[in-house]
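Structure ticket #2291
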Amino acid sequence: MVNLFRANDAVRVVGPAELPLCLLDVLSNETDRATLGKRGLETLRSQRGATERTLESLQKLLPSSHSHDSQGVGSSTSRQSPGQL
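Resolution: structure written out below.
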């Protein structure tokens, strides 16, 4: 995930020695702080729903006899109790 933030210029990765100076720079520069925050939020929003899309793609690869019901993967209605196995 860090690489995604790096690619979107939404994070500054620095070492321990540079961290205090970087923090002071970001805290003292409102424009940079706002820009970095906006890019970070956009990056997070771009990933919204990624888990659901991944699960849907994986379900398409499973044989239909192993597909889960419309309630979704892991829903309480799709689980069987040990006595039903």
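Closing remark: Residues 30-46 form the longest helix (17 residues).
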